[in-house]
TrEMBL record:
The keyword DNA repair does not apply. Keywords: Membrane, Transmembrane, Transmembrane helix. Pfam families: VanZ. It comes from Thermococcus radiotolerans. The chain crosses the membrane at residues 48-67, 74-94. It comes from the Archaea. This is VanZ-like domain-containing protein. The keyword Cell cycle does not apply. Residues 30-90 form the VanZ-like domain.
Amino acid sequence: MRRRLLFLYVLLLLFLNLSPKVPSSPVANGDKLVHLLEFSALGILGWRWWAYLLPLPFLLEFLQLFVPGRTFSFADMAANLIGFTLGLIAGWWYEGRDEGAPLFHEGRD
């Protein structure tokens, strides 16, 4: 189920990042926040497959060079990567919070 959801989300990211129409943001640099949130969700959903997903924050921004009406931006790429990294950390923490050694061993002094 998780893989299907991740696959569908990657398709959604492809569509959103490579479609020629770009919605404008009423907030200055609001698109950076959108990039951050989009790729945070990707990191949360796909933290187990991070090595396969790592090229996406770079690749999707680079491919915008070839889409009419879209532009390449290092700031957007940085927002993609920061969001992806934060999502990976959140996904890893959420999935692994009940596994592993406890911080405190009860009964030991």
